[in-house]
Amino acid sequence: AQTVTQSQPEMSVQEAETVTLSCTYDTSESDYYLFWYKQPPSRQMILVIRQEAYKQQNATENRFSVNFQKAAKSFSLKISDSQLGDAAMYFCAYKSGANSKLTFGKGITLSVRP
Amino acid sequence: DAGVTQSPTHLIKTRGQQVTLRCSPKSGHDTVSWYQQALGQGPQFIFQYYEEEERQRGNFPDRFSGHQFPNYSSELNVNALWLGDSALYLCASSFTGTRHYEQYFGPGTRLTVT
Predict the structure, then answer these.
(1) B108 vs A43, A99, A101: nearest CB
(2) What is the DSSP code (8-state) at residue B13?
(3) Quick check: B16 and B85 in contact, CB under 8 A?
(4) Are B43 and A102 within 8 A, CB to CB?
(5) String of DSSP letters for A49-97
(6) Is pLDDT above 90 for B102?
(7) Is B56 in the A-facing interface, judged by CB distances under 8 Å?
(8) What integer best gives the mean pLDDT of chain A?
C-alpha cells in the first residue's frame, strides 16, 4: 500500500522569506502523481501544485515550486516570498496512474510571522 | 463556473442516527470521491463513484454507503452513527477522461455526533 509521510507537524516562516515543507512517500508503482494541497481555516482544500512522476522537471507555480527526487521518494514544497495568506495546513498527497484515490499525509501547519 | 458544492455546511446528530450528506460536482466532472477528515489529520478515502456505481472503496465499514445520480451529483449515507464518525466530510470531483484525474474539493460538511 502506498503511504505518505509528513514528519514535521508545524513550521513557521517570516513574511517575505522562503520555507520548505518536506514529504516522503512509499510506492512500488512507476506511474503516479504527487500533489500539494493547502487547507486554510475556511476548510476548502485548494490544489497548490502537481508533479507527474514521469516528468524529470520540477513543477513550478508562481511562488511555489517542488523538489521531486524520484529515487529517494521525496517531494518537498518550497514557498518563496512567503505571504500572510500562505498560513494554512499543507497536505502532501499521492495518486497512482491507475488508481484515482488520493492518499494524504498527516499535514503540516504553516504559520507566517509578520 | 460553479465549483464543487456540498450541503449542509454543519450537522449535529445523535449516536445511532443516520445522516445523508450531499455533493454537486464541478461542471463537466463525472466522478465523485468522498473523504473523511478527522480533526488535525489528513483526509481518508471513503469511496468513489463513477457512472452511478461505486468504483473504489477505502477501509470503511458498510455503515458508509453512497449513491451517484444521473446528473453526477452524489450522496454519502452513514448509518448507526458513532461518536468516532465526527469529522469533516469532503467531496471531490474529477473528470475521468484525462490522464491527470485531478480532484477538486468542496468546502466540506462538518458532522458532529453527540
Answers:
(1) A43
(2) E
(3) no
(4) yes
(5) EEEETT--SPPEETTEEEEEETTTTEEEEEE-S--GGG-EEEEEEEEET
(6) no
(7) yes
(8) 93
Read off the pLDDT of residues A5-55 as tens digits, 9 standing for 90 and up. 999 999 999 999 999 999 999 998 888 999 999 999 888 899 999 999 988
Per-residue pLDDT at A99 exceeds 60: no
Cβ neighbors of A8 (< 8 A, separation 6 or more) are A21, A22, A108
Q: What would the grid cell of residue B38 be?
A: 478527522
Considering only CB atoms, which chain A residues are within 8 Å of B96?
A: 100
Contact B107, A42 (CB under 8 A): yes
CA distance A25 to A33: 11
B-chain CB neighbours of A93 within 8 Å are 42
Place of cell 455546511: B9
CA distances from A31 to A54, A109, B11, B45, B76 (A): 7, 29, 39, 20, 30
Which residues lie across from A51 on neighbouring strands?
A34
Among partner residues A4, A33, A44, which is closest to B105 by beta-carbon distance? Answer: A44
Alpha-carbon Rg for chain A in angstroms: 14
Q: What dihedral do alpha carbons B93, B95, B100, B106 form, nearest 10°?
A: -10
Tell me the pLDDT tens digit for each residue of B42-97: 999 999 999 999 999 999 999 999 999 999 999 999 999 999 999 999 999 988 87
> Does the pLDDT at position A98 exceed 60?
no
